[in-house]
Amino acid sequence: MYEYIIKQYIKNLSEKDIQDYAQKQGINVSFHDAKILKETAQKDWYTFYKGDPTTILETLKAKIDPITYEAGLLLYENWKKNGSI
Question: What are the CA-CA distances from residue 12 to residues 16, 17, 38, 63, 70 (Å)?
Answer without folding.
Answer: 11, 10, 10, 22, 25
